[in-house]
Specification:
The complex is a heterodimer. Chain A is an alpha+beta fold. Chain A contains 15 helices and eleven strands. Chain A has two domains: about 200 residues, no CATH class; about 170 residues, no CATH class. In chain A, the strands form two sheets. Chain A has a six-stranded mixed beta barrel. Chain B has one domain: Rossmann fold (3-Layer(aba) Sandwich). Chain B starts with 13 loop residues before the first strand and ends in a 9-residue tail after the last strand. Classes of the chains: A alpha+beta, B alpha/beta.
Chain lengths: ~475, ~250
């Protein structure tokens, strides 16, 4: 029989016992809906996670650190493992070497330190990080008020929104609406900050007022207390949840300015001997890759040089793994209802065989082959699968919308930003309908086979 | 559509031949010999009645000729093809293209209209939709049911239902018309109408007709040859002198 005829006959047969077939179809749609709901939650969560990753501006960035710091960093898992090869010090020659690698755009040292900033004579302790000029184009600075640094060495500062709130004494209590960035920017931009910091001075340098920890065993450099005036040029609302990178800090300085300050770094204490040599040693370097597709090869090259690397590729690899497991779980739970529904299909079709025994006998007597009868039952199962699938996707999507809506009301009450953690991509729609179809056809296997094997003489005798 | 040529084979040659045909059923300990060693021959264009009381095996023989059942032993050869050696698929094609069947209980599909019932075999034969309709109308014209095209079987009288069944049996232009008590559920007047039509098919379309009946009078009125069965065995096979062309 041809497919249009099969479809027509199948639909006609489904209409004949409308209630029963509708109930079976609703059963399938509930199964599909649960599958869609589960998977779209997973997909939505993954999209949310990758949105955050992208926001961190790390998509084309590799963080390079000295292998020795592996444990010191704490955050790094020993994923890279203790590979053979010398561990190297991450100093200026190493930075230049990395910058010369193929596909590398730039390699900037990560300068980050905690120090005191005075604003209107009030001290504020915070983390300060250096930003290269190239960070200007990063997604992270979208929606910034004011402007970016005028030059690499300008005595200017960008403030993270939360720090601006602190400076203005506007830190909102938990649950209260947050002030907008522009609201904070108006009284701050153009104002002056005084940064007090500890400078690492070469041994020959003049002796500054001594500080505790000044005289380390075997050290031959000194620490000098300094001040630097900074003009606030911009306020940005960076995502504090970003994986890592410069957005962890609350105040940002131009890279060249920060480098020139020779601020005491945490690593200086560990790398005492090197630090003393006057050569800058970096705790980590951010390498910007020209093309995100090259990130893996550049990472491998840097690893070969004897450094530890971390990139979004590593982060997203872990993330992918996590979501793979999550999908499997959600998928299995979602499919359970569909499997139950498939038993409903078997039941419905077996009932249909009993009811339509005589009809099957007639069709066989006038020339229907086993395969015609089999295909007819398959078509009926498939049709129920398609209808159930479509209905289920609509249902699942609606459930998702309702839950998303409800959750966002809750988030709003907690004065958290609304999130879109629910996504039904087209492939999921196609997959869900297809899967419902496959499950239905598999359920139809047994009834269809049974109908096909029916002995026409016995079937005709049946009243 | 598989092409089984709709040419009518020359009259007088053997259309159906059975040799020592047996169909035994096992019922627990007992073996029921529904058909027990029947050898017969039906010529192309003949009108043969299979007569016998109920349980004589006449319907079983008809089912074996129709390819609905397989013999336990022996053979049924229709147009030089041994049905017992055909696969299930081949038997379905044979039923579709070579055989037209009518039953005592009409066996129309209740959910379909008359037209849909009549064109159902054409669906199995994968005939184009446009051709199906005209063929169905033509067949329904022939049985005088053009006014009832879109009625459901339940809306028709018994005679009309049987006419629809006849139209369905005709639609694929088979060479063989097998009728199992076609008038059993009809009053005598309607029965006569139906039988006149069957005779028309036999005479005008050259179809070979094998009819199972227990009414001797009916057989004597229409069949050119009468075959008597009892307990699964052929007991008598004689021409019907009252019907023109009955003598050989």
């Amino acid at each position: 029989m041809k497919i249009p005829d099969l479809t027509e006959l199948a639909l006609r047969n489904l209409r004949e016992s409308l209630l029963r077939n509708s109930l079976t179809t609703v059963g399938i749609s509930v199964g599909v809906a649960s599958l869609v709901a589960m998977l779209s939650l997973g997909i939505g969560l993954q999209q949310m996670a990758s949105r955050r990753l992208v926001k961190s501006g790390l998509f084309d960035t590799i963080i390079v650190s000295s292998r020795r710091e592996l444990r010191g960093m704490g955050r790094e898992e020993e994923r890279s493992g203790p590979t053979p090869g010398e561990s190297r010090v991450l100093d200026e020659p190493a930075r230049q070497e990395i910058e010369r690698l193929a596909n590398v755009g730039e390699a900037n040292p990560d300068i980050r330190f905690v120090t005191e900033l005075r604003f209107e004579d009030k001290p504020h302790l915070t983390t300060i990080a250096a930003l290269p000029q190239s960070a200007k184009s990063s997604d992270a600075f979208e929606g910034m008020q004011g402007r970016f640094f005028s030059s690499e060495g300008a005595a200017e500062a960008l403030l993270q929104k939360s720090f601006a709130e602190e400076l203005l004494g506007k830190t909102p209590p938990l649950g209260a609406p947050e002030p907008s960035v522009s609201e904070l920017a108006r009284p701050l931009i153009g104002k002056e900050l005084v940064m007090r910091y500890a400078q690492r001075a070469a041994p020959a340098a003049e002796n500054a007022p001594s500080q505790p920890g000044d005289d380390f065993i075997g050290t031959s450099y000194s620490v000098v207390s300094r001040e630097q005036k900074l003009t606030i040029v911009g306020i940005a609302d960076l995502d504090p949840e970003s994986m890592r990178g410069p957005t962890r800090a609350r105040v940002f300085l131009p890279l060249k300015l920060a480098e020139g300050l020779h601020v005491m770094q945490a690593t200086d204490l560990r790398e005492v001997s090197r630090a003393a040599s006057g050569q800058a040693v970096y705790s980590s370097i951010s390498v910007r890759v020209k093309n995100p597709a090259q990130i893996q090869s550049v990472e491998d090259a840097i690893k070969k040089m004897g450094f530890t690397t971390f990139s979004i590729a590593d982060a997203s690899r872990g993330l992918r793994q996590f979501f793979g497991v999550l999908y499997a779980f959600l998928g299995i739970f979602g499919s359970l209802a569909l499997i139950v529904a498939s038993i409903g299909i078997v039941n419905t079709l077996v009932m249909a065989i009993l009811e339509r025994r005589r009809e099957i006998g007639i069709m066989k007597a006038i020339g229907a082959s086993d395969r015609d009868v089999q295909k007819l039952f398959f078509a009926e199962a498939g049709a129920m699968g398609i209808f159930g699938g479509i209905l289920g996707v609509v249902l699942g999507w609606s459930i998702g919308q309702v839950i998303n809506f409800g959750t966002n009301i809750y988030l709003k009450r907690q004065s958290l930003p609304p999130e879109h953690f629910w996504a039904v991509p087209w492939w999921l729609v196609a997959f869900a309908i297809g899967f419902a179809c496959v499950v239905s056809l598999v359920s139809g296997l047994y009834p269809a086979g049974r109908a096909a094997k029916l002995d026409p003489i016995q079937a005709l005798r049946y009243e | 559509m598989t092409s089984v040529p709709a040419v009518s084979i020359p009259r007088g040659t053997a259309a159906i031949r059975s040799e020592n045909l047996c169909r035994h059923y096992r019922m627990g300990e007992n073996v029921i010999r529904a058909v027990d060693g029947v050898s017969l021959e039906v010529h192309a264009g003949e009108f043969v009645a299979l007569l016998g009381s109920s349980g004589s095996g006449k319907s079983s023989v008809l089912n074996l000729i129709a390819g609905l059942d397989r013999p336990t032993s022996g053979s049924v050869i229709v147009q030089d093809r041994d049905l017992s050696k055909m696969s299930r698929e081949e038997l379905a094609k044979y039923r579709l293209h070579v055989v037209g069947m009518v039953f005592q209980s009409f066996n129309l599909i209740p959910s379909m209209t008359v037209t849909e019932n009549v064109e159902l075999p054409l669906r199995f034969a994968e005939v184009e939709r446009s051709r199906r309709e005209s063929l169905a109308r033509e067949a329904l014209d022939r049985v005088g049911l053009s006014a009832r095209l879109n009625h459901k079987p339940s809306e028709l009288s018994g005679g009309e239902q049987q006419r629809a069944a006849l139209a369905r049996a005709l639609i694929n232009r088979p060479q063989l018309l097998l009728a199992d008590e076609p008038t059993g559920n009809l009053d005598s007047h309607t029965g006569t109408e139906i039988m006149d039509m069957v005779r028309g098919f036999n005479r005008e379309l050259g179809m070979t007709v094998v009819m199972v009946t227990h009414e001797r009078a009916l057989a004597e009125r229409y069949a050119r040859r009468m075959i008597f069965l009892a307990d699964g065995k052929l007991v008598d096979d004689r021409p019907n002198p009252t019907v023109q062309g009955g003598q050989r």
